[in-house]
Amino acid sequence: MRAMTWRHLSAALVLGSLLTACASTPPRPARSEFEDIPVPRGLSYQADESTVIETTSIKAMRQVYRGRLELESLATAIRSTLEANGWRHVSSTPMRSSQQAMTQVYEKDGDSLKVQLWEGLWKWYTYAEYTTGRIVKRAR
């Protein structure tokens, strides 16, 4: 009986340590390199999969986010927030002829923005990839 108690206590300590470690690592907040490209709540920025290139005349980004959101509701939220920031929806097309992925294209003031959405393996996470580039306007 005593061995059983130690086993239960050890298992509880290991489980508690794991849960504490998970709880103390906050998700990275959603962010965007451009103020007029909002990212819906519920998505976390994936720095390892993202790229930002900036020179004196051009700024380009490929930013990846992931969350536990339903693909269609995420697509609707992205479209709503972008249109509220002056982006005009140009098109939405399914990728790979499936409902688990899609591409949205927007434009604003001569700039274009491509948003790719897809569900990960086993539909555990939904991903959003924002790709755009802009000419940097210099102050005169």
Structure description:
There is one protein chain. The chain is built from two helices and seven strands. The protein is of the alpha+beta class and 140 residues long. It has one domain (28-135). Strands 1, 2, 3, 4, 5, 6 and 7 form a seven-stranded antiparallel β-sheet that branches.
What would you call the shape?
globular
User: Structural class of the secondary elements?
Assistant: alpha+beta
- Helix fraction, binned, reads 25-40%
Q: What's the assembly state of these chains? A: single chain
Largest sheet: 7 strands, antiparallel
Strand residue percentage: 35-45%
The low-confidence runs, each spanning 5 or more residues with pLDDT under 50, are 17-29
Tell me the distance between the termini: 81 Å
Number of domains: 1
- For the residues shown, what is the average pLDDT? 82
